[in-house]
Amino acid sequence: MLKYHDQHVIHIGELLFGRIRKPITTLLGSCVAITLWHPRQLIGGMCHFALPCRPDFLAQEREDARYATDCIKIFMRHAHDWKVELTEFEVRLFGGGDMFTHMLPEENIDTETVQTRPVGEANVAHAFGMLMELGISVLEADVGEKGYRKLWFDPRTGYTRVTFVPVHRVSQLDPRYMRAQA
């Protein structure tokens, strides 16, 4: 088992790319991670984004890896710096779990003011759409469902490992949740 200092841990809004010498790991709920690996150049990366695109009032800000649209732009710029195209990478997509719909009231939702589409589903749909639009094939996807994922990616080999934990199992194991329900 790897020790904490033997790997990079990325959080929401972080992105790593290049000839990275340590595995990258993250924890995903409704957020999505995209991994890239170039089998000839032996370069790769991972991003961890929270939302499909930035709000209009932030349109003039610099690129921000909290948003899928910006992650793809950043990856494209890095690939260009390495003189490769994103279409040459092995691309995998993870996350987009449905973490919050069990918290919404079943009736009387004002669908004009409340987003009823789960954010994880929106993240996944947006990421797939952008990648398809750019002609980038997704080699593997482990997305959706009610739960979170632990993702481990080795950018030296392109190997990924994902562990899915259902939401109901999390609530059964977390003593803080049990106290809150009492």
From TrEMBL:
Keyword Chloroplast: no
InterPro entries noted in UniProt: CheD-like_sf, Chemorcpt_Glu_NH3ase_CheD, Cytotoxic_necrot_fac-like_cat
Gene3D superfamilies xrefs: 3.30.1330.200
UniProt keyword Ion transport, yes or no: no
Coiled coil segments of this chain: none
Pfam families linked to this entry: CheD (PF03975)
Any one GO BP annotation for this protein: chemotaxis
Keywords: Chemotaxis, Hydrolase
Enzyme Commission identifier(s): 3.5.1.44
Signal peptide: none
Domain of life, per lineage: Bacteria
GO molecular function, one term: protein-glutamine glutaminase activity
CDD domains: CheD
Catalytic activity: L-glutaminyl-[protein] + H2O = L-glutamyl-[protein] + NH4(+)
Family, similarity comment: Belongs to the CheD family.
HAMAP family listed in its UniProt record: CheD
Function (record text): Probably deamidates glutamine residues to glutamate on methyl-accepting chemotaxis receptors (MCPs), playing an important role in chemotaxis.
Name assigned to this protein: Probable chemoreceptor glutamine deamidase CheD
Organism: Terasakiispira papahanaumokuakeensis
Gene, per the UniProt record: cheD
